Amino acid sequence: MSPSQTYNLIRIVIEKYQLHRMVNYLCKAAAVSRSGYYKYWSSEAKQKRSKREQQDEQVKEIILKAYHFKRRKKGARSIKMTLEGQFKVVYNLKRIRRIMKKYGIVCPFRKANPYKKMMKATQEHRVVPNLLNREFKQNIPGKVLLTDITYLVYGSGLRAYLSTIKDSSTNEIVAYHVSDRITMDLAIKTLLKLKKDRRFKKAEGAFIHSDQGTHYTHPDFQKLVKKMKLQQSMSRRGNCWDNAPQESFFGHFKDQASMKRCLTLDELKREIKDYMTYYNHYRYQWNLKKMTPVQYEATEKVLRMIKTHPAQVFVRMVCLFSV
Predict the structure, then answer these.
(1) CB of 14 closer than 8 Å to CB of 30
(2) How far apart are CA 249 and CA 220, in angstroms?
(3) Based on CB atoms within 10 Å of each CB, which residue in 22, 105, 199, 283 is the most buried?
(4) Three-class DSSP category at 159
(5) Which residues of 287-299 are buried (b: 16+ CB within 10 A; e: fewer)?
(6) Is-contact 226 202, C-beta < 8 A?
(7) Rounded distance, CA 149 to CA 251, Å?
């Protein structure tokens, strides 16, 4: 027990059994000092505790605003970044964690990914080498793309499948597709959505990395990858760490998305769309310099432009300020 808990226990015992003359004995038995006990129950200490309690209540309300921001529960680090980014409030992690522990504000726990490998590929399917080698952060948006498929349970035991493509450098989900069937075209439709997205800019030497599932060894998928002038990379067999950031995203998604309340596939799709907007535009990430994926991508583009074309950036700034 903490000293304060011990002092409260001693006080309860004394008042219940009328042991006012045994304070010294009870303090020795509980391994606390008698002076500390009397100081704890002094009027000055009570006022300080009351004042701190009021402050903690105020801080708790502010933390809860960040905790429930966009209806997505968060851990201490996400709360800290959301407070700074959305509410312009700066608390240190130690304080946030203390308040969360004190008032029982619990963040969702990560669950094991239940995704299992599909049936073995047919003879026409082809496995390609691992070009990534876990070099996830290359600080070049649009170069390293990670993709995978997971299953989702919603409503009364209904099942759907989510395929995503994630930019490893910015953590942004650049394309996704939802289906109630895990057909071979699930991965292809996701890739086609990326192809149609005018906002996405492919970097030089870009490649897409996946596991060795049948969706990615399928000839049609590999032909589309080549048509989009992308290279293809695959994890080693049975090694989920080779695609760890993508697995991590699925874990966070399942913890934070409200899928159980979705009764139909359309409702599930709306919830997923809402979460993707939240994740890309509002979910601050510690490893992205406390920025959201979209903010981080924009910042990296500016920095890269300054390094590669400093003269053009200077001319644009002069023109901007002159206007």
Answers:
(1) no
(2) 26
(3) 283
(4) strand
(5) ebebbbbbbbbee
(6) no
(7) 12
